[in-house]
């Protein structure tokens, strides 16, 4: 859990007008890896506007292809999900629940930024 929190806290420090959304993953993934963890690629942060989940997509892993630059007044989330094992997930039949494919633990923290 400490690693997941640190990933979030350090990525928030990178947020300012002109910063690229894709660069947040360059902050998050090294912290996760240094602590023996992986970053889930299936889910990402997102914009918040008239629709709750909208552009921009905010991936939490390095070497992503997200587009977009942070601008004053933008509202978006950062919500890295950090796994002790493999980054991949399996989806349960309820179409909501996800679990790690290797059964190892996962932690996630999120914040909405304006």
Automatic annotation (TrEMBL):
GO terms for cellular component: cytosol. One of its GO terms (molecular function) is metal ion binding. The lineage of its organism: Eukaryota, Fungi, Dikarya, Basidiomycota, Agaricomycotina. This is Peptidase M24 domain-containing protein. GO terms for biological process: proteolysis. InterPro entries: Creatinase/aminopeptidase-like, Pept_M24, Pept_M24_MAP, Pept_M24A_MAP1. Keywords: Aminopeptidase, Hydrolase, Metal-binding, Protease. It comes from the Eukaryota. The keyword GTP-binding does not apply. Residues 2-114 form the Peptidase M24 domain. Signal peptide: none annotated. It comes from Ganoderma sinense ZZ0214-1.
